[in-house]
Amino acid sequence: MVDRMIKKSALTGGKYMSVHLRFEEDMVAFSCCIYDGDWKENIAMENARERGWRGKFRRPGRVINPEANRRNGRCPLAPIEVGMMLRGMGFDNTTSLYVASGKIYNAEKYMTPLRELFPLLQTKETITSPEELAQFKGHSSRLAALDYTVCLRSEAFVMTQGSNFPHFLMGHRRYLYGGHAKTITPDKQKMVLLFDNPDIRSALSDCYPTCLSARRSWRRPEFRHVKSGYRHLASFHLDSQF
């Protein structure tokens, strides 16, 4: 899988970024955060919480405050928010991107804007055949191992939500590339302030690829020298100097 990803990254000399995207239905439900906010989402999330945690969120005295969760950086980043962050850092549509994830909640809707921003986006489903992947179906740990292998060898890794997967991966990557493997960790509390900017909220609501390109001339930086106007929004675990 790594060799296939490298071949698909010809525009960047075989280098690619990887993103661990935690936007599965159970993660969105557990966070108690609001995305669409319509009745369909509300029902889907209530049902998911009841299936997974059986009344935990309905206990007397329990207060759920989605806006407070968001302000405190506890909401999983939606795919479009990840795309906006990367574009804001200067990565354009020639960037080769691998997305590691489980089954994305409402994937057709939420992944489309990210794919429009990064048409070279790949997943384990796109770089393997259905026959190859069939032997791993129904085994979440084995599927995660496939993602782990590809992310491990990426030039830069982006984590979007704390969990065992990114933390183990970050530790493993410490021993690669002469100790200079790069990890981008967004500061979601600061990103909330940025996404509340009226101009950016308008871009979000319009699923914005055309509007976004009109707002700014994007330039993809070299992987070794990430120059980010959004640098204050993310912490970079790097041993090399910018």
From TrEMBL:
Which UniProt keywords are present, listed alphabetically? Carbohydrate metabolism, Fucose metabolism, Glycosyltransferase, Transferase
Q: Per its UniProt record, what Pfam families does this chain match? A: O-FucT
Q: Does the keyword Glycosyltransferase apply?
A: yes
* Any one GO biological process: fucose metabolic process
Q: Does the keyword Nucleotidyltransferase apply?
A: no
Which terms in the Gene Ontology molecular function aspect does this entry carry? glycosyltransferase activity
Q: Which PANTHER family match?
A: O-FUCOSYLTRANSFERASE 9, O-FUCOSYLTRANSFERASE FAMILY PROTEIN
> What is the similarity comment for this entry?
Belongs to the glycosyltransferase GT106 family.
The protein, known as: O-fucosyltransferase family protein
Protein species of origin: Aegilops tauschii subsp. strangulata (Goatgrass)
